[in-house]
Amino acid sequence: MDVQFRYAQHPTEDTMRAVADLYDVYGIRRVRLNQSDRTVLVEYDATRLSNAVVFQLLRRAGLSVTEQISLFAPSPPPAPDANKNPAA
Description:
Oligomer: single chain
Largest sheet: 4 strands, antiparallel
Mean pLDDT: 89
CATH topology: Alpha-Beta Plaits
Structural class: alpha+beta
Strand order of the largest sheet: 2-3-1-4
């Protein structure tokens, strides 16, 4: 399962080492930081961990995680139906 979070401050070297150590946590498969967007994407085993646990692991590593971000773009509103006659 993948979960993405936004973080507030750019990580320090110590924080980056601690984030790299997350690979030692049973169930963490991948951690990707996007420093330009200030986001972190974590792939994990959902049978072992939850979003809340991943959030806490990142916070304990020193990453200033602020919120979870949806991995899916919001769907556009439905287009008006040209065949409907509002005067009917």
